[in-house]
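> call design_seq(struct)
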């Protein structure tokens, strides 16, 4: 009888211990990697640019642009100009390269490369990046003045901003062009006879 009672007491104590024992903590969940974090590439760094002569038959022009970077993946972008008409434009390289390879592009026949720029590949998805700008001659009847400004960017929505100067009165003022989405150009002109002193691309 005593032995049976002791057995019951022992069982009760063990049962209470089992109930009172704290449950083991669940293992922490595995870290979750956001999809946007996968495959992120840094912008190219350590880039150098150059311009070369081009020979096409009897044509010789300073129209080939090269870019080489120390890191990253990139294309080349040229800001070109037709010296006969004075009109500027932008062309991109047809393919991207990995550092330290050289990306190359040529302006249209006879046109010169005024600017050479690296372009990150793939392009950033946020903001306005990679803007280039230039001024052009305006021909209105017998009037010829350096009063047109153009801007072009790699990403985003933007407009051209021109700081103009009336050379007769000394007055300076600012005009803005229409909003455009990359890679289109935004263009506008100063008031007749006034010159474009500073041209830039700004977020719209």
């Amino acid at each position: 009888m005593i032995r049976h009672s002791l057995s019951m007491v022992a069982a009760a104590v063990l049962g209470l211990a089992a109930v009172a024992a704290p449950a083991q903590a669940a293992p922490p969940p595995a870290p979750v990697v956001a999809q946007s974090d996968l495959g992120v590439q840094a912008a190219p760094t350590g880039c150098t640019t150059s311009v070369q002569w081009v020979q096409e038959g009897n044509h010789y022009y300073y129209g080939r642009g090269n870019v080489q970077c120390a890191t990253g993946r990139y294309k080349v972008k040229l800001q070109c100009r037709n010296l006969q008409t004075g009109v500027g434009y932008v062309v991109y390289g047809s393919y991207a390269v990995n550092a330290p390879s050289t990306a190359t592009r040529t302006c249209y026949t006879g046109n010169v490369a005024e600017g050479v720029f690296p372009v990150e590949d793939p392009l950033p998805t946020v903001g306005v990046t990679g803007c280039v700008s230039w001024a052009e001659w305006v021909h209105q009847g017998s009037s010829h003045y350096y009063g047109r400004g153009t801007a072009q960017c790699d990403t985003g929505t933007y407009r051209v901003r021109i700081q103009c100067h009336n050379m007769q009165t000394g007055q300076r003022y600012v005009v803005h062009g229409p909003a455009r989405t990359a890679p289109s150009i935004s263009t506008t002109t100063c008031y007749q006879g006034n010159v474009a002193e500073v041209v830039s691309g700004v977020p719209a």
